[in-house]
């Protein structure tokens, strides 16, 4: 189970920090990260924001590169998404998600297809007002 927190309403240029805490699952063994989707559309077709291997290799989407920073605290079994310089187009429902790689080689690859992710948070709304 993944439980998210930290969404909300912020003005353009502001910052928010999302958290995702795992229960019954260990982020240290997983490929995990964040997706986002337009409000009202559910998870299907969600776009990736940032995804990381268990060793900390992170892939950011071009739209957030340089503004968002993903991190993990394995001791707390929690991952974070620090979002700075927010823009109206960042408005979305943000989901944390994870999967366990099937092999050592698999653990080195970040799959950006949301269908690969079998564990999801409930989603948290981020609204950036202009």
Describe, in plain words, how this protein is organized in 3D.
The protein is 3% helix and 45% strand. With 130 residues, it is mostly beta strands. The chain is globular and about 45 Å long.
Number of strands: 11
Principal-axis shape: globular
Distance between the termini: 34 Å
Largest sheet: 7 strands, mixed
Rg from alpha-carbon coordinates = 14 Å
Which class do the helix and strand fractions yield?
A: mainly beta
Quick check: average pLDDT? 94
Beta-strand fraction estimate:
over 45%
Helix content: under 10%
Q: H/E element string?
A: EEEEEEEEEHEE
SSE diagram, text form:
Elements: E1 2-5, E2 8-11, E3 16-22, E4 31-37, E5 47-52, E6 58-60, E7 68-73, E8 78-83, E9 92-99, H1 104-107, E10 119-120, E11 124-129
Parallel strand pairs: 2-11
Antiparallel strand pairs: 1-3, 3-8, 4-5, 4-9, 5-6, 7-8, 9-10, 9-11
Précis, in short:
The protein has 130 residues and is mostly beta strands. Helices cover 3% and strands 45% of the residues. The longest helix is centred in the C-terminal third of the chain and has 4 residues.
Q: Which structural traits does this protein have?
A:
four-stranded antiparallel sheet; mainly beta; globular; 11 strands; seven-stranded mixed sheet
């Amino acid at each position: 189970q993944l439980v998210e927190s930290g969404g909300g309403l912020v003005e353009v240029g502001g910052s928010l920090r999302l958290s995702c805490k795992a229960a019954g699952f260990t982020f240290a063994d997983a490929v995990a990260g964040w997706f986002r989707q337009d409000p009202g559309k559910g998870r299907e077709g969600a776009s990736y924001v940032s995804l990381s291997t268990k060793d900390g290799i992170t892939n950011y989407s071009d739209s957030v590169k340089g503004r968002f920073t993903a991190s993990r605290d394995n001791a707390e079994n929690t991952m974070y998404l620090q979002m700075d310089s927010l823009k109206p187009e960042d408005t979305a429902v943000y989901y944390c998600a994870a999967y366990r790689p099937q092999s050592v080689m698999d653990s080195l690859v970040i799959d950006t297809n949301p269908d690969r992710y079998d564990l999801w948070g409930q989603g948290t709304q981020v609204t950036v007002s202009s």
